[in-house]
Amino acid sequence: MRGIPACLFAALLLAACTSSRETAPARSAAEQLLISAAADRSAGQIEFGVPAGAKAFVDSFIEGPDAKYALAALRDRLIRQGALPTADRNAADWIVEVRAGALSIDDEATLFGLPSFNAPIPLTSATQTPELALFKRARRIGIAQFAATSYPVRGGAASAAGPAYGYARATKWTILFAISWSTDDITPPGKCD
């Protein structure tokens, strides 16, 4: 009987639990990085044709959850080319109309093995089986396509730029059921190790 309290005490010491709080935003950081990197790469190719020192009003025809970042990337490119963005359309020397043909993520996967599926079990809810991958490649591609039209307020030749395409990629590889690694072009080397 003396051993029972000692066994219960040992069981209490060994029975431990750890909890952590995780947030669940609408999109993961990886998704946000894929879209923002593609937007930066597309915007970096646009040549607005606005003379250095000219005041430019940017009129955006970009919509969606990433519209503000896309517009900021395009404005940054305009500033780097020497133009001076202004919030007052009446004070502008040039009007720059920017638009996006794409600003999203595509997913594609290749699997050699057995995919996960719902297995019906009588008198219970269905159970999800694990995926058994001899080889799997799951790729996510961020895609941005921007174009712009710039024209002087007081007459003169207009300038058209684009479409310019930007891509960002993240790929997860799995072989022999459990060996996996990831590659991408959105994080600096050594930052996510």
Quick one: overall form? elongated
The succession of helices and strands, N to C, reads: HHEHEEEEEEE
Low-pLDDT stretches are 10-17
Q: What percentage of amino acids are in beta strands?
A: 35-45%
How would you write the strand order of the largest sheet?
2-1-3-6-7-8
- Total number of distinct structural domains: 1
Mean pLDDT across the residues is 86
How much helical structure, as a percent, in the residues? 10-25%
* Distinct helical segment count: 3
Sheet of most strands: 6 strands, mixed
* Rg calculated over all Cα atoms: 27 Å
N- to C-terminal separation?
52 Å
Total strand segments: 8
Structural class: alpha/beta
Would you spell out the secondary-structure blueprint of this structure?
Elements: H1 3-14, H2 29-43, E1 55-61, H3 67-80, E2 84-85, E3 94-114, E4 118-119, E5 127-128, E6 132-152, E7 159-175, E8 179-184
Helix pairs in contact: 2-3
Tags for this entry?
6-stranded mixed β-sheet, alpha/beta, 40% strand, single chain, 193 residues, two-stranded antiparallel sheet, 21% helix
How does this structure look, described?
A six-stranded mixed beta sheet has the order 2-1-3-6-7-8. The chain has a two-stranded antiparallel sheet with strand order 4-5. It has one domain (27-116, 126-184). The chain is elongated and about 90 Å long. With 193 residues, it is α/β, with parallel strands linked by helices. α2 packs parallel to α3 (67-80). It is 21% helix and 40% strand. It has helices at 3-14, 29-43, 67-80, and strands at residues 55-61, 84-85, 94-114, 118-119, 127-128, 132-152, 159-175, 179-184. Mean pLDDT is 86; it is low at 10-17.
